[in-house]
Specification:
Elements lengths: L3 H39 L2 E8 L3 H14 L3 E8 L1 H9 L7 E4 L2 H8 L7 E6 L2 E5 L14 H5 L6 E4 L5 H16 L5 H7 L6 E2 L5 H6 L5 E5 H6 L3 E4 L12 H4 L3 E5 L6 E5 L4 E6 L6 H12 L4 H7 L4 E8 L12 E3 L1
Parallel strand pairs: 1-2, 1-3, 6-7, 6-8, 13-14
Antiparallel strand pairs: 3-12, 4-12, 4-13, 5-8, 5-9, 10-11
Helix pairs in contact: 2-12, 3-4, 6-7
């Protein structure tokens, strides 16, 4: 039988053990809280995202989901023609954190190497002709006769500005390819001549209001835009709609000149499959939040899923040019090309 002395010693040891366990638990809880607090501090503040107008609807959804996960971050988006968005950084000094372009070469040509170091290719698209029930000859137009319908007297059609928006110069590339594909000499110039300046808008999504109001019968758009607006559209042959890797060599037959980096300069845009690019800029003020946003965008179950739900085909795994400059945190999501 234990003496009173030993019982007192055991009680003391047990008490000390309980105190030690309690203190350790509190310490772990505080450490976890501090770690969570630190993580929240790492991704807070304003995040400025410039993006192609055609990404407006999916990026709005991505913004909402991202801000739910990171309530300390305020995503500030601006959509427009990809070339125009890039020039906001290069010419107007805007300190955007991220830019997503409907044509990855806009990033290559206008931003790298001074304003960006790498380029992630994450989505695809195709050119279609969008219309509605009251468009002239809506019951006749199809993928074989669309150009004949557009050239009929009284039919109006439009496209976006080639110097500001990739959909604009892609429309012209499509017209050039159509001339060859349908064996119709002079078709490109005829289509240009019958599309007056008043039917050209800074970005492709600006044309939708003109279509819905009846000012235009047809507009050249991305397929994703037509799907998002549940609109009727003419699906063009793969040989001319700039969607297919299979026809990449054929697309190269088409070339258009647009304004370059500096006043008076031009760039030659060569036909190629439509590929979207995104990057972090070198002038952004919130790189930590930018990395988290891009991790969300590149995730198959998050950002890429939202894009697909909005009719935007994705590239998975996302492909990157300039991998050596890529932030370490993003490398698991991307594949070098």
């Amino acid at each position: 039988m234990l003496s009173k002395k030993w019982i007192s010693v055991l009680v003391l040891l047990l008490s000390l053990t309980v105190v030690a366990v309690f203190a350790y638990g509190c310490g772990q809880q505080n450490t976890g809280s501090n770690r969570q607090s630190s993580q929240k501090q790492e991704i807070e503040g304003k995040l400025v995202v410039l993006h192609a107008g055609s990404l407006t609807i999916p990026f709005e959804a991505i913004e909402k989901e991202f801000e739910k996960l990171h309530p300390g971050v305020d995503v500030v988006r601006e959509g427009g023609g990809s070339n125009a968005m890039a020039r906001k950084i290069t010419d107007l000094g805007q300190k955007a954190d991220i830019i997503a372009s409907a044509d990855y070469t806009v990033i290559d040509e206008l931003l790298i190497p001074k304003y960006a170091k790498w380029n992630a290719l994450f989505a695809k698209n195709s050119i279609v002709i969008m219309y509605n029930d009251w468009s002239k000859y809506a019951d006749e137009i199809n993928s074989d006769n669309w150009y004949k319908i557009l050239l009929r007297e009284g039919v109006s059609y439009g496209h976006s500005d080639p110097n500001q928006d990739p959909c604009g110069y892609r429309t012209l590339l499509t017209w050039q390819l159509a001339e060859d594909y349908y064996k119709e000499p002079g078709l490109y110039e005829k289509l240009k001549a019958n599309c007056p300046e008043k039917n050209v808008r800074p970005k492709s999504v600006d044309l939708i209001a003109l279509l819905e109001s009846g000012h235009l019968d047809y507009i050249f758009e991305y397929k994703s835009i037509a799907l998002q607006h549940k609109a009727k559209f003419v699906e063009l042959p793969d040989e001319i709609n700039l969607s297919s890797l299979k026809h990449a060599d054929y697309y190269k037959k088409a070339k258009v000149e647009i304004t370059g980096k500096k006043p008076g300069e031009t760039m030659t845009m060569v036909g190629k499959p439509i590929t979207y690019g995104v990057t972090m800029t070198t002038v952004g003020k919130n790189p930590k939040a930018a990395i988290e946003f891009l991790k969300f965008l590149f995730d198959r179950e998050q950002g890429l899923r939202i894009l697909e739900e909005n009719g935007q085909p994705v590239i998975y795994p996302v492909e990157v040019k300039g991998e050596e400059y890529l932030p370490q945190e993003l490398k698991e999501f991307l594949e070098s090309i």
